[in-house]
Each structure stands twice: as structure tokens, then as C-alpha cells.
């Protein structure tokens, strides 16, 4: 069990390294809000990674993706969410933690707002499910159900560790850059819009192909 948990943790951390929507959203949360919200976004993404890994282990992932209407719907919804979120990010200003706005935000469910965002960015992306089905199928062939679940939990832990590291690095960068950080939030917003348009294009490709 322990060995499968450690394998899952290593895979979860390594698959989080490529820059994707969750990493970008974590950077935005650290720059525009605060470290705790950035960590919450990462925890949401890690929970979704663990869930998709479990679906792959239990064999439900291929059944879900077997319905041709599912991937384009998820890609389309994901694209719209990312574009809207990106536009809001480009237009928004960083929150001053010392001011009234920052204090109010901390008191108004900052954790669940960030957690649900990270969760949605993974769950709405069918490419993530496909990736986990492939990874699980190749790396955990022959594993028992219990060993597979241990690996899925490890995936969640590994992803959470990586996303927490990204949050701390982004928070450190915010402190170094000071007021110039507003330009980075705009770049982050533009990246989110780009991801969203790409996801919408994939939805169209599924429909017309």
C-alpha cells in the first residue's frame, strides 16, 4: 500500500509541473489576493486530480469518455469559464490585505471560493481525465483496488504539495515586485483567456470532426 501511495504522490507532483490553468489560477490568486487563497485553489485542483485518478483506477473514466457528447460539452464549458475568468483577472486590481477590502475578503469564504475554482478548472477539462486514465492504465496495471485507491490518495497529496510550492513561490514574487505585480496579473489573465479559447476550439473540433 505504502509503495503505491508513494508512486501516486510522485506522479501527482510531476503531472502538476507543466503550466496549466490551475497553476495560472494559483499565481493569479497569490498576486491579486493572498497566499491562503492561492493554496486553496491548489487544494481544489489536487482534490480533482485525486478524483479523476480514482475514476481511472475504478474503470469509470473510459465509460464516461465513451459518450461522444461529453468531451465537447466539458471543453466548451471550460473554455467559457476560463475566458470569463481571464477577462475579470485582466480588469481586476490586486487586493490590499491591509485595507478594508482585503480584510472583508478573508472573512467572506476565501477558502471555498479558491477551492471550488481549482476544483472546477480540473473537473471541466476532459483532457485531464484522459491523461489520468492513460497514466493509471500504464503505471498501475495489475494493482488491486485497495492499492489503486492508495495511489489515488497519493496523487492528491503529491498534487497538493506541488501546488502549495507554486503558491509560495508566487507569493514571494509578489512581495519582490511590489506595485509592478499588476502587470503580471494582466499577463496571467491573458494566459487564462488563451487557455479558454483553446478549449473552445477543441470543443468545436470535436463537433465538426
Q: What does this molecule look like?
A:
With 209 residues, the protein is mainly alpha-helical. The chain has one domain. It contains ten helices and no strands. The longest helix has 33 residues. About 4% of the residues have low confidence.
**Percentage of residues assigned to helices:** over 70%
Strand-pairing-aware structural class: mainly alpha
**Overall strand count:** 0
In what range is the share of β-strand residues? under 5%
Q: What Rg do the Cα atoms give? A: 18 Å
The span between the termini is 43 Å
Q: What is the string of SSEs from the N terminus onward?
A: HHHHHHHHHH
How many helices in DSSP terms?
Answer: 10
What is the molecular shape?
flat
The biggest beta sheet reads: none
Low-confidence stretches: 97-104
Mean of all residue-level pLDDT scores: 79
Q: Can you tell me the number of structural domains? A: 1
Features of the shown structure:
209 residues; 84% helix; 0% strand; mainly alpha; 10 helices
List the helices and strands and how they pair.
Layout: H1 2-16, H2 21-32, H3 35-58, H4 60-65, H5 70-91, H6 100-106, H7 110-123, H8 126-139, H9 145-177, H10 181-208
Helix pairs in contact: 1-9, 2-3, 2-7, 2-9, 2-10, 3-7, 3-8, 3-9, 5-10
Amino acid at each position: 500500500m505504502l509503495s503505491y501511495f508513494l508512486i501516486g504522490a510522485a506522479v501527482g507532483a510531476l503531472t502538476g509541473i507543466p503550466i496549466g490553468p490551475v497553476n495560472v489560477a494559483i499565481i493569479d490568486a497569490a498576486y491579486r489576493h493572498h497566499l491562503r487563497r492561492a493554496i486553496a485553489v491548489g487544494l481544489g485542483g489536487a482534490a480533482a486530480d485525486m478524483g479523476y485518478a480514482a475514476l481511472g483506477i475504478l474503470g469509470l473514466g473510459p465509460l464516461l469518455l465513451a459518450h461522444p457528447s461529453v468531451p465537447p460539452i466539458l471543453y466548451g464549458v471550460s473554455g467559457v469559464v476560463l475566458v470569463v475568468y481571464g477577462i475579470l483577472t485582466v480588469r481586476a486590481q490586486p487586493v490590499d490585505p491591509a485595507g478594508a477590502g482585503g480584510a472583508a475578503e478573508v472573512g467572506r469564504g476565501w477558502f471555498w471560493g479558491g477551492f471550488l475554482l481549482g476544483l472546477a478548472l480540473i473537473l471541466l477539462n476532459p483532457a485531464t481525465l484522459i491523461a489520468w486514465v492513460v497514466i493509471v492504465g500504464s503505471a498501475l496495471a495489475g494493482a488491486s483496488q485497495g492499492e489503486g485507491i492508495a495511489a489515488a490518495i497519493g496523487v492528491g497529496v503529491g498534487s497538493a504539495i506541488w501546488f502549495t510550492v507554486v503558491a509560495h513561490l508566487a507569493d514571494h514574487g509578489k512581495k519582490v515586485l511590489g506595485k509592478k505585480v499588476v502587470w503580471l496579473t494582466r499577463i496571467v489573465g491573458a494566459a487564462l483567456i488563451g487557455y479558454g479559447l483553446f478549449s473552445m476550439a477543441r470543443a468545436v473540433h470535436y463537433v465538426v470532426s
